Amino acid sequence: EIAGISAIGNLSGQSLLPLISKFSDFSKWQHPGWVLSEYHGCNANTSTYMLRVGKWKYITYADGLSVPPQLFNLISDKDELHNVVLKFPDVQAHLDKLLLSIVDYPKVSTDVHLYNKRAFAEWRESLGQNYSQVIANLRWYVDWKKDVLANERAIDKWLNYSSG
């Protein structure tokens, strides 16, 4: 928007330009009342989703089931040290429903996982005979070298696991 380029049709979001423009009329700014953040990384075990609404920060992972969600009251716990998800199941349910209305995070997580698997398989294939040498010298080399064969078997098992 700042560069004068039209937004791509499949992207969603809110313009932040009114927040940084000294000529803005903030009363016309349409904010949805929540902030969403997603994290997907090639070195992360799972996708992470954060939804901020008022004093609450809700964090959930992957399919929403395999890793317990977290809920923080940012007024009383600014450092996010006390997960209160079990104390406020109604808040957790409401925020999870809201999150699902914004993004189908279980599906997105599955798609990201499958993409990462395909990309890794293609990367490994592209290295050919150099694969073992290259992977043994990446940034996690200390842990990798503790049991190279077990690590290679774990990758083979992951790549051959059909459901994702």
UniProtKB/TrEMBL annotation:
Output the InterPro entries linked to this UniProt entry.
Alkaline_phosphatase_core_sf, GAG-degrading_sulfatase
SUPFAM superfamilies for this protein? Alkaline phosphatase-like
Query: What are the protein's GO molecular function terms?
Result: arylsulfatase activity; glucuronate-2-sulfatase activity
> Can you say what this protein is called?
Arylsulfatase family, member K
Q: Which gene encodes it?
A: ARSK
